[in-house]
Amino acid sequence: MEFVSGTGRILIVDDERMILDVGKPMLELLGYTAYTAGSGKDAIEFFKNNKEMVDLVILDMIMPDMDGGNVFDQLKAIDIDVNVLLSSGYSVNDRASDILKRGCRGFIQKPFNVAEISRKIKKIIG
C-alpha cells in the first residue's frame, strides 16, 4: 500500500506506551514532527502551552484518566479550530459518532498502518 508523506506537527495522545513508541517514528517517517502525550491531562497541558505548534491531534478515545470526548472538549475550549483525528481499537460507535458530530475531523481504527494514517492526515491537514 502506498503512503502519502507531508509536513506539519502532530500530537499523539494515547495511554498505551507502545502506540506512542510506534506512532512517533511512523509519523516522522512520513515527514511530520511528532509530539507525544501519555494521558489526557498531559495532552491538554501540552496543547495549552504549545497550540501554535500543533497542526493535528491524534486522540485515543479510551483512556483511564480522562476519555477522548472530555479531552476533545477541553482542546476545543483552548482552540475552537483544533484538528483532531479520533483513534480507537473499537469501530465507530455512539460515543465516537457523538465526538465526530461535535467537530472532530475524522476517525481511524487501531491498529492502523502507515498507508491508512498517512491518507487520514493528508485529508485533514493537507
Give the secondary structure arrangement, pairings included.
Elements: E1 9-13, H1 17-29, E2 33-37, H2 40-50, E3 56-60, H3 68-78, E4 84-88, H4 94-101, E5 106-109, H5 114-125
Helix pairs in contact: 2-3
Which key phrases capture this entry?
single chain, 126 residues, alpha/beta, Rossmann fold, 5-stranded parallel β-sheet, 5 helices, 19% strand, globular
Descriptive notes:
With 126 residues, this protein is α/β, with parallel strands linked by helices. It has a single domain, classed as Response regulator (Rossmann fold, 3-Layer(aba) Sandwich), CATH 3.40.50. It has helices at 17-29, 40-50, 68-78, 94-101, 114-125, and strands at residues 9-13, 33-37, 56-60, 84-88, 106-109. A five-stranded parallel sheet has the order 2-1-3-4-5, sandwiched between helices. Helix 2 (40-50) packs parallel to helix 3 (68-78). The longest helix is centred in the first third of the chain and has 13 residues, at 17-29. The chain is globular, with a radius of gyration of 13 Å. The model has no long low-confidence stretch (mean pLDDT 94).
Provide a quick synopsis of the model.
The chain has 126 residues and is α/β, with parallel strands linked by helices. The protein has helices spanning 17-29, 40-50, 68-78, 94-101, 114-125; strands spanning 9-13, 33-37, 56-60, 84-88, 106-109.
